[in-house]
Write a structure and sequence with these properties.
The chain is of the alpha/beta class and about 230 residues long. It has helices at about 15-25, 35-40, 45-55, 65-75, 90-100, 115-125, 160-175, 180-185, 200-220; strands spanning about 5-10, 30, 80-85, 110-115, 130, 155, 190-195.
Length: about 230
Amino acid sequence: MAVNVIMLGPPGAGKGTQAERVARTRGIPRISTGDILRDAVHHHTAMGESVQAVMDRGELVSDDVMIGIVTERLGRPDVAPGFVLDGFPRTVAQAVALDRLMAERDPLIVLDIVVPESELARRLGTRMICGDCGTNADGHEAVPGRCGKCGGPLVQRADDSNGVVLERFKIYQRATKPLVEFYRERSTFRSINGAQAADSVTADLAAAIEAVGNGRLNAAGGGNTR
């Protein structure tokens, strides 16, 4: 069975880091809509120019744009064994569209990373990205203050400034948090304590994926699932 994972959680929950770890361990692609958008902005594409101001204000890019990006990406052959979606869906409308895209695929495993707001604010205030390639710094750069991927300078993300962080929290509460309620009753939904050390979060995510996968196999064989 394919391992199709989506990561939910507020800004600063560590979705990007954890999605990369899950993808690397499973040998499946990580699809980060944020990275796709930031790359478009960096290379001054038509899409990048249209969404840059929206992203800098901490607002959500339109559903139509996001659904189009994900529809195209999930149509590529490398996602056949599964994928990890990071940054999508962000709204219930996007989740409904994703369900349509998944109609002929194995079910989604929905992992919600939960972190207290005070810890999120602390993390976002210190989070850095590469000013050249846009990669998120994960604390493991070979040279302090330089990107571990390309060596570029690390800078604060425009959408991590104090005023924008507050706006992003408001948007999360209003538009994105309802996703948890949309998915909560599914047997493939799990909540993960994201306030732990990153390695502990990784272990809990791996255990949740295994538990969901075993439940799906049991269900296919007539067993019981949660």
